[in-house]
Amino acid sequence: MRVLLKGILQRDLTLAFRQKSELMQPLMFLLVVVTLFPLGIGPGPDTLQRIGPGVIWVAAILSSLLGMERLFRDDFADGSLEQMQLSGIPLYQIALCKIITHWFVSFMPLLMLSPLLALFLNLTLPMYTALLLTLLLGTPVISLIGAIAVGLTTGLQRGSLLLALLLIPIFIPLLIFATSAVESAAMQLPYGPQIAIIAAIMLLALALSPFAVSYALKVSQN
Amino acid sequence: MVLPADMVECWPIFYSQRAEPKLSGLIGNNLTSHKQDRCLFQHLHIRLRAGELVHLKGPNGAGKSSLMRILVGLSSPEEGNVSYDGVDISEPAVANNIVFIGHKSGLNGLLSAEENLTYWSAQHQLDVSNAEIYEALAALNLVGMEEVPIKNLSAGQQRRVALARLWLKPATYWLLDEPFTSLDAEGITLMETAFAEHVSKQGAILMTSHQALSERVGRVRVEHLDYRL
Known about the structure:
The structure holds 2 protein chains of 2 kinds. Chain A is mainly alpha-helical. Chain A has one domain. Chain A has helices at about 1-20, 20-40, 45-70, 75-80, 80-85, 90-120, 125-155, 160-185, 190-220. Chain A starts with a helix and ends with a helix. The mean pLDDT of chain A is about 90. By secondary structure, chain B is of the alpha/beta class. Chain B is built from 8 helices and 9 strands. Chain B has helices at about 5-10, 10-15, 65-70, 115-125, 130-140, 155-165, 165-170, 185-200, and strands spanning about 25-35, 40-50, 50-55, 80-85, 85-90, 100, 175, 205-210, 220-225. The interface of A and B includes residues 77 and 88 of A.
């Protein structure tokens, strides 16, 4: 445990905060999309409220795709991943640790920014609560599933286009349930089932993804 | 229990329980590998014992690096297996006894030499203090470069930082793919002295290099890998 905390978690966090522009890029993208949308659609409070949750979710998915490749790309290119694989720590633990760091670095700022975005898009408090819950449970899925695709494409040059093609269909269910939950919240209806399904997807991804990632990385290394 | 010969044959279970002679050293048994439909090697046997330095030679594209990667477990052979002192390479414990330094340095350009080695030691479950890392870097004449981001070092200096791992991890087996790349004459002398010392302490080294090793290293066994069409 200590090995993972120091060797992987601390290392990845140090690296993330040393590349400030890469850290900020997805966040700025998100902010720009959410700010531009109302201007393009027309600033009626009702329209904004209707499209708000969807806009935030779509922007979150797209912005995450921007920085997704970073998960393994640099470590693969400079050989750090090789050395990690030879360290004797099971690869799935390394993968899980890197995924958690990725989530923390790319989605924590989003969650912290979300009240501001909710304000931009005129969301009511129940809607915002539902949105926060879906983001909290749904964004780990993006990191977990994304890591599998990054692991598979990391050995290829210019894998990012393939990455987007692989991932977008997988994120569609997530988007549907998340927006449906917020919509129910807007109409004062219970949104427990949608949240439960997102949580189930998250747990399934959490259970399977580290092993899939470790296999994908081994294949890429071969 | 000694089983009659015919029983051994009918009951594979008994057969497998018979103590096989434990083979020491690194053994690559019956290895086969293809790259892009070209056979690199087929049914290759290689053995590296403690206290031995093997210099693997061969033209570009002969498959030296592929063989090295198979021997450390980074890629898997199409046929055959690799074991260290009788333990299969798939066992995680084997990793504690190996240091592999390949073409890629495994150093992150944004981190300093000291940070890179600290995190590396943590990953490899080594209890290495900062002083020991400074000592290892000093042994490679990198005094004053410890805190500089790796990307600002020259290629030769980066190679030295990568090689400093050999000072930090007490492993028997050193597998080095072209360790002399971009090292200057002084650096090569330094490494050769380190090789001789490691071999004298019953360590084992398998290395590739297009350069001949000097007499400083002591006894060297040369293996050739031919380019196959």
